[in-house]
């Protein structure tokens, strides 16, 4: 009687949140990680990501090389890591928040009205 | 013979990525979602999040009310949703990128040197 | 017959705008300086400025040292230089725009209602 | 004996700085205007400006209409007004800082090496 293997893998957002908690605790960084400071950190990391695209033409954007991709992966990771820490500090379930927002967006941007259209919902 | 229930739940980052793909496809938004535009969107959403903390004192930050929390959850979700879309557009595995970056940070910020210290790694 | 000395000094915003035009022309940078790219540059430089305050407590912010001040002066200058270039590209008179906005703010934030209050005008 | 008219006009950056001082004083906003909060405000306003360009193609950017221009003028003014306030709070001469930075950039980006090239100075 072979037990079917149970997938005990943590969801990656939970796993990363827990790893970040430990990381900050080990370094006693809790004192710096006020919600305000974490929100600043998210903006700062987002701008570091954006800087890579600053002077690229649309054509150049369509042809990003592996080297550049590795750098962008790190910058994206930086944003995500701070997003996770702020969500944790505010005691929010990030996956649920994201699912809820996507639902809300589906209502704000009905398929028929928003197809091929980049207007904001309040201008549709 | 009871089969042990198998956890077939998708990882939430994968689930959200797939939902976002469908969302953008249904609206034919691929044309707007160049890497550069998505990177701009991340910065814009990060600043909308930051705006909520703009004039708050450290004391006020420590006492965020449920109403404000719900708004912040939406803003955090907005950032995450664009981070997921840019990672997908660049064909990056976001969870792996985040794990790798956390590893790298652990090397850059050794526990002993960085405990209780907010200096950048190159100033430690 | 002593001629009264005429103040021929250019207004500093005009002087800087002209110097920036020459700077970009000499380097043939006009092709990179689309309004969109300049707007990105402003956000990127604003975040570099913000990064210096990221982990500072309110007390530390009140005691910025000369060294740090020189760095902040450069970051502020970077933001201003791109603001001037975008205004020029859009053929806007920046000083007039700033005066007009200040006037508008005076109406949006009446002294009596907004004294000691950091609320947004639409919440006053 | 016709007196040559003397240009007694204040430089616009000085005039705006003074007007902003009065504006904040009348509203007792000094307590909110810590350097850190003003740096956040600059980033938030820069992102509001950037949002207008978020989904625009390069072609659309080249053809901005008067209506949109008036909105952009306000957003640019918002950035400038906070830049002026932070410079004032730090007791910096913004025009001098901008002139100095432009000089420094001229050294970092020699005309011959940087013509038609958007690379960062450390990659030239």
Describe what this molecule looks like in 3D.
The structure is a homotetramer of 124-residue chains. Chain A is an all-alpha fold and 124 residues long. The first copy, chain A, has a domain of 71 residues: Orthogonal Bundle (Helix Hairpins), CATH 1.10.287.1080. The first copy, chain A, is built from six helices and no strands. In chain A, helix 1 packs across helix 4 and helix 2 runs antiparallel to helix 4. The radius of gyration of chain A is 19 Å and the shape is globular. In chain A, 35% of the residues are buried. The mean pLDDT of chain A is 91. Chains A and B meet through helix 1, helix 2, helix 4 and helix 5 of A and helix 1, helix 2, helix 4 and helix 5 of B.
